[in-house]
Amino acid sequence: MPDPTRDPALTPHAHTTSSAQVPHATEASASGAPYVLTAQEYDAVLLAGFGGPEGQEDVLPFLRNVTRGRGIPDERLEEVATHYRHFGGVSPINEHNRQLREAIEAEMRSRGMELPIYWGNRNWAPYLEDVVQEAAAAGHTRLLAVATSAYSSYSSCRQYREDFARAVLDTGLAGVVRIDKVRQFFDVPGFVQPFAEGVAEALRGFAGQGFAAEEIRVLFATHSIPTADAERSGPQELGLGEGGAYAAQHLAVGEQIMGRLRAEDVAGDGTGWELVYQSRSGPPSQPWLEPDVCDRIAELPGEGVKAVAVVPLGFLSDHMEVLWDLDEEAMEAAEEAGLRAVRTPTPGVHQAFVSSLVDLVQERMEAVPVSERPHLTELGPWYDVCRPGCCENVRRGFSPVAAGVVP
């Protein structure tokens, strides 16, 4: 994405917004400009997670939290609960966030950054509201949030920002606690590197087993979302087309990875790749992004494919939708199709990824010039302050948010 000072489509936002249009923001972010170019002090970092159950008794209450307001009966939720119960009712996502917090803290300390790190979840303990109260009680009222999601969409960005606003409003801390958010990091080098390494290992493995380049397919997998939400992901003025910013960002990262591996002679010219989706949960009458990963796997033998690498490009860690939807269902689909298959790793606490997250914290604190911010695709670097109407949920409308221009 170009520097907004050179982009006429974005320049007006830097001059027409006011502090009232970016609720709960620090002074440096309150103008509503797309990029923050004034250094800012923070009291703490807020690591914001999705949350997950940590025992069988937690599963249904957790799923009720995730689906609140949608009127889904417990009988339907219990169908989803079987995925968690298969693993003892424990989602690995909370443990991952504990490890990620420790890794970020260690990296920050190595750079002489003494900010405390709070961890709060949207859907399970520790809840964001409780953590924000804890931070405020300790005198930490200027928080820089790092959401555990890299892409633009309602569920992967705006909903986090709604939860930040709710945490401030419901605790009576509006006007006391301010929350900014680092930019989305889909194309920062440290996020992309672990995926590229995983694809490279898979391709070398297939080559060593005698598969020709044209017999191998790379499937970059991410969570499916309603097409109406996808179309509204990211600023509408960018005109990113079908799938909005959500699809465009994933496709750009996939292209970057495969281009790099071809340049390094790891991927052959005949090795195809595509973006696929998983974990659809909406009613059949509601259009969601396609194709489904398992459906594509079933079709690949008819296209001459004999080996497939499934890359969890939309996920930071091996949480339930990776362990079940990919490791169980996608691998079963590959076996049924007679394909050799491997699922590549998520970033987890890969040092390059952790370092990039801390880079983003420093970038925001020091107001690094846009031209110096690391990014690997033409879509980056993404915005510091989310744009008006960004990532609308058409079923819910616009709720109060933090870290972005209203609505």
From TrEMBL:
Q: Where is this region: Disordered?
A: 1-26
What would you give as a GO molecular function for this chain, any one?
metal ion binding
Q: What is this protein called?
A: Coproporphyrin III ferrochelatase
Which pathway, metabolic or otherwise, does it act in? Porphyrin-containing compound metabolism; protoheme biosynthesis
Signal peptide start-end: none
Cross-referenced NCBIfam families: PRK00035.2-1 (NF000689)
| GO CC field | cytoplasm
Output the GO biological process annotations, alphabetical, semicolon-separated: heme biosynthetic process
What does the protein in this record do? Involved in coproporphyrin-dependent heme b biosynthesis. Catalyzes the insertion of ferrous iron into coproporphyrin III to form Fe-coproporphyrin III.
Instruction: Write the Enzyme Commission number(s) for this entry.
Output: 4.99.1.9
Subcellular localization is given as: Cytoplasm
Q: Where does Fe(2+) bind?
A: H223, E321
Pfam families per record: Ferrochelatase (PF00762)
Q: Which UniProt keywords apply?
A: Cytoplasm, Heme biosynthesis, Iron, Lyase, Metal-binding, Porphyrin biosynthesis
| Catalytic reaction(s) noted | Fe-coproporphyrin III + 2 H(+) = coproporphyrin III + Fe(2+)
Residues holding Fe-coproporphyrin III: S91, Y160
Q: What protein family is recorded? A: Belongs to the ferrochelatase family.
Q: Which domain of life is it from?
A: Bacteria
